[in-house]
Design a protein that fits this description.
By secondary structure, this protein is of the alpha+beta class. 45% of the residues lie in helices and 13% in strands. It has a 5-stranded antiparallel sheet. It starts with 7 loop residues before the first helix and ends with a strand.
């Protein structure tokens, strides 16, 4: 675990590196396995593969204040066999960016009107995945208007709302786990912020599966995809979705669905 006095982002960096190291096998990186008391690679093995000092790597995992170069970050990504999304996440975690406290975004009126006039199901979310605006077609499927404002959050809706579990049916666990891995990439950059801490507390309390998924520390990028739903009135729905950033505020993401 990170040492006392480290900031939240450094702590998340250490946890992320440790989780990736522990998931790798010696065989996967061309090393002799042998009998091991703990899973994954040893710290000195990762340091050797990355061509960096062991003590320096240990400082990274401890969440202590260090500033790795771009070349070192790339070397660690290769040593830990990171995916493209994980590599990008590692870069972002090592940037010492001071953030102000999170404030719920406001959707510009032009963007809101555009969403409302679309015939396809569409909605807008913010950094914390709060659902900020939607149209009638989306409301017919996801019933956002029936949720209290504090509950209008994509993660809370899918992970803690029994009606959404029924909506996703057999695909619920896969969908929920995918969302958690995508949200991880955003959360770690805001770790320690009261609004994000509150969201995590509600997810832990409302979704028994969440804790295991969260502690796995998996990270994935946001991409287009498909959803299979069982709607109480519309029956079986197969939807394809894509997301877009708003030029007015890059924190805003527009999600549009089409039937397939």
């Amino acid at each position: 675990m990170a040492e006392p006095g480290t900031n939240s982002r450094q702590s998340e960096l250490g946890d992320f590196l440790r989780s990736r190291r522990q998931k790798l096998t010696p065989k996967a990186v061309g090393l002799s396995g042998g009998r091991r008391r703990t899973p994954g690679l040893r710290r000195e093995e990762v340091a050797d593969l990355a061509g960096i000092g062991v003590d320096w790597y240990i400082r990274l995992e401890q969440g202590r204040s260090v500033s790795p170069s771009a070349a070192t970050i790339d070397a660690l990504a290769r040593a830990l066999r990171l995916t493209r999304a994980e590599h990008r996440h590692l870069k972002e975690l090592t940037q010492n960016t001071d953030r102000r406290a999170f404030v719920r975004e406001t959707v510009p009126s032009a963007v809101r009107r555009t969403v409302e006039q679309l015939n396809l199901p569409a909605y807008v979310t913010g950094r914390r995945w709060d659902i900020l605006a939607w149209n009638a077609a989306a409301d017919e499927i996801f019933a956002f208007s029936r949720l209290a404002e504090a509950d209008r959050n994509s993660l809370l809706s899918v992970l803690t709302n029994p009606a959404k579990r029924r909506l996703f049916g057999a695909s619920w666990a896969d969908e929920a786990q995918r969302m958690v891995a995508q949200f991880r990439a955003t959360h770690d950059l805001w770790a320690g912020d009261p609004a994000f801490r509150d969201l995590l507390a509600r997810l832990r309390e409302g979704c028994p599966e969440f804790i295991g998924w969260w502690e796995a520390h998996d990270v994935s990028g946001v991409a287009a995809g498909r959803k299979s739903l069982t709607h109480p009135k519309k029956g079986q729905l197969k939807l394809e979705y894509a997301s877009f950033q708003a030029n007015d505020d890059p924190a805003l993401k527009l999600v549009i669905y089409t039937t397939v």
